[in-house]
Amino acid sequence: MTAETHSKPASAAGPVRYSTVAIILHWLIAAALIFQVILGWRADDGPKGAETFALFQLHKSIGITILVLSVARLLWKLTHKSPPAPAGQPTWEKIAAHAVHVGFYVIMIGLPLTGWIIVSTSRINIPTILFGAIPWPHLPGLPELAAGAKDAWNNIGHLGHGLLVKFTYVLLALHLGAVAKHQILDRDEVFGHMAAGARPGLKEPRLWLAAAGFAAVVAAGYLYTPAKAKAPAAAPEQSAADELALPDETPAAAAPAATPAGPATAAPMAAAEATPPPADSALKDPVAWAVQKGSHLDFNLAWADTPIQGKFSRWTADILFSPEALDRSKLTVSIDLASAGTGDGQRDESLQGPDFFNTSANPKATFTATKFRKTAEGRFVADGTLDLRGVKKPLSLPFSLKIDGDTATARGVTTLDRTAFGVGQGEWASTDQIPAKIKVSFALTARKK
Questions:
Q1: What are the subcellular locations of this protein (predicted)?
Q2: In CATH terms, is domain 4-223 a member of 1.20.950?
């Protein structure tokens, strides 16, 4: 489409310029295409971290936008006349201009389509949400293909996308060179077809305005920085447990990739133990405790040195506990892995995929503990087993607690190893971008039932 600037010059036999709609679509697509090229360079060359992930998400959004605008431009072109070639233009120039014109439609539609194929056949099922707000589906039929066929389509998408990107560079060079030739050497009205009122020559202000716009789009592509992911949903109200001191030591234990299972497990454990004997009477026998609203399970990790904070919004705890009856206390915590949130919908969706939590096969993580140790006044450790992705590993959680009558508050922090549970498959099994150790924490309030 961008090629139309030099492929459809003015003449008395037709319109003197493109229609207003065609001109608007031309400049919108041109700016989006240049910005998209810069984003692609940055995403390919940058470290595979949170910022690069965000760049790819924007890259997808702009790609689909270009596809929609290009289809609209093509439909408009089929129903509206374009300015004819300049009188006396050599035949070879007309053929070349037409070829470049067609080539631009090929890349403007082909690049988004091949990118769409790549996303639709990716091993990690990350949804496309345009500009973080508009859900966009995968190409019908591709996500359901068998592994072999899906990989074949993915390879086709990558190959086609790479070739079209290189073709884009050639077309942009030819197009800009042709515009310069028509405006400076031939001094005809071609540039005026897409810049209404423009006159031939270097002194034309619209020419310099277009050049400044080109430079601005390039600069914007390099300077754009994705906003950091927001904390998952609204942070729960701080409970009295947050004021409790915690031991500096945080025994390491096996844990999930995004550590959700770990935190969830930890929180309730603390709840269980967070019920030391009331002020005026010791709990001789274990009692049932109910976790109260406002309690939360959080996890923190680094993705290519970018800190990410997450939480689980859905988990339950079956607690039977007494500080005076640790040998008979027990705890069972169930965490809904699909409730993991990091403030980025696409990243959260990927956590549910087969490379991470694989929630379709293992929707829950479960922590059970039947052994509790007192390490200091108001400090305990819960020893139990965490079941995540079908893998069971021992987990120890240190926590501090405070009891006031029928209410107990607790807080705990520990470090978990996601790789012990196979959370992070394929390229994500490596710990160079997402470390193996994930910090998990909880703060909760519990009441006697």
A1: Cell membrane
A2: yes
d(CA 326, CA 330): 8
Element (H, E) at 317: strand 315-321
What residue ranges do the domains of the chain occupy?
A: 4-223, 240-448
Strand, coil or helix: 55: helix
How far is it, in rounded angstroms, from Cα 189 to Cα 200?
Answer: 6
Burial per residue of 119-146, b for 16 or more beta-carbon CB atoms within 10 angstroms, e otherwise: bbbbbbbbebbbeeeeeeebeeebeeee
Place of tokens 């109260």: 292
- Distance from chain centroid for Cα 241: 33
82 in Cβ contact with 11 (< 8 Å): no
Q: What is the mean pLDDT of residues 170-196?
A: 86
Return the axis-axis angle of helices 91-120 and 147-180, rounded to nearest 10°.
Answer: 150
Each residue of 306-363: pLDDT tens digit?
778 889 999 888 888 888 888 898 888 889 999 998 877 767 877 888 888 889 899 9
φ, ψ at 321 (rounded to 5°) = -150, 145
Tell me the HSE value of 266 on the side-chain side, using a 13 A CA sphere: 37
CB 312 within 8 A of CB 339: yes
- How far CA 386 is from CA of 297, 382, 389, 397, 415, in Å, comes to 15, 12, 10, 11, 14
Dihedral, CA of residue 393, residue 396, residue 397 and residue 403, to nearest 10: 120
Q: What is the largest CA-CA distance in the chain?
A: 104
- Give the angle 386-387-392 at the CA atoms, nearest 5°: 85
DSSP codes, 179-202: HHIIIIIS--SHHHHHSTT--SST
In 3D, which of 439, 373, 446 has the Cα closest to residue 412? Answer: 439
Fold of 240-448: Lipocalin (2.40.128)
Cα 23 from Cα 317, distance rounded (Å): 62
